[in-house]
Design brief:
- The protein is globular, with a radius of gyration of 17 Å.
- It contains six helices and twelve strands.
- The protein has one domain: Alpha-Beta Complex (Fumarylacetoacetate hydrolase, domain 2), CATH 3.90.850.
- It is an alpha+beta fold.
- Strands 1, 2, 3, 4, 5, 6, 9 and 10 form an eight-stranded mixed sheet that branches. A four-stranded antiparallel sheet has the order 8-7-11-12, with no helix packed on it.
- Bound molecules: 2-oxoadipic acid and magnesium ion.
- Magnesium ion binds next to strand 1 and strand 4.
Length: 257
């Protein structure tokens, strides 16, 4: 068994038994290329199980998230169809190891995007609609303790995502100024603006496209792209309700059971 498939199996098993792991880098050398190979193997296992790729996610694109996780640069992962959660559907905490949520701006692509020179303007031109969204995270590492390469291997802690019910044409909208208010159980917990995500959420997506080009990959029409947490992530437990209110992009609410 190769190191890549061994690591991938550990991460897939953690999901099955809902039990966190020690970081892979504790016991083995894990470089970035290997971490991306592990990520690809984990995603391929979901695809093989009947859950196709429906998009991609960026992570650690804001200072708030980088400081919270002690990782100083952005990364990405893939979204598969089993991660889609519809608006207003309760999320069952026991389906996860240690769920957290964070507010994000999401892009639904109307055209394919690939190449080493893609810009934020090209991302906006290829976008069918933007949504206010909530990323439901679940690290497969106990206590979210990981290095950049560990969390890359773990498909950027992806577990679920909810797109709000308001699809908005980004033309004429300055997403840098899109404010977000995050509430948990009726209390304000965090605030941010779109610019918190690499200066502009579309710039974050453009970075992703250029990064994917290094491995000969790209994004396709119909893909959803989550631009990364605008604020710190918050932990959730049964009985909690989280609401993310966005300027222009509507409100997203998740009840947790
Ligand atoms: C890593 C996942 C990062 C984001 O938006 O920053 C992420 C983590 O915080 O576990 O999804
Ligand atoms: Mg996120």
């Amino acid at each position: 068994m190769t190191a890549v498939s061994e690591f991938a199996d550990k991460l897939l098993d953690a999901v099955k038994v809902r039990q966190g792991l020690a970081p892979l880098s504790d016991t083995m050398d894990l470089d970035e290329a290997t971490a991306l190979d592990v990520q690809q193997a984990v995603v391929q296992a979901r695809v093989d199980a009947g859950f196709p790729i429906v998009g991609a996610k960026l992570g650690l694109t804001s200072k708030a998230k980088q400081q919270q996780m002690s990782v100083d640069r952005p990364l990405y992962g893939w979204l598969t169809s089993d991660m889609q959660i519809d608006v207003a559907v309760p999320v069952v905490c026991s389906d996860y190891i240690q769920p957290r949520v964070e507010p994000e701006i999401a892009f639904l692509l109307g055209r394919d995007l690939e190449g080493k020179t893609v810009t934020a303007a090209q991302v906006l031109a290829a976008t069918e609609a933007c949504f206010g969204a909530i990323d439901v995270l679940d690290s497969r590492y106990t206590g979210y303790k990981f290095t950049f390469n560990d969390v890359t291997a773990d498909n950027a802690s992806s577990a679920g995502f909810v797109l709000g019910g308001t699809a908005v044409d980004p033309y004429g909208l300055d997403l840098r100024l899109t404010g977000c208010v995050l509430e948990k159980n009726g209390e304000l917990v965090h605030t941010a603006a779109g610019a918190s995500v690499m200066g502009h959420p579309a710039a974050a997506v453009a970075w992703l496209v250029r990064k994917l080009a290094e491995r000969g990959q790209g994004l396709q029409a119909g893909h959803v792209v989550m631009a990364g947490g605008m604020t710190e992530a918050v932990t959730v437990a049964p009985g909690d309700t989280v609401v993310a209110r966005f300027a222009h992009l509507g409100t997203v609410e998740i009840p947790f059971r």
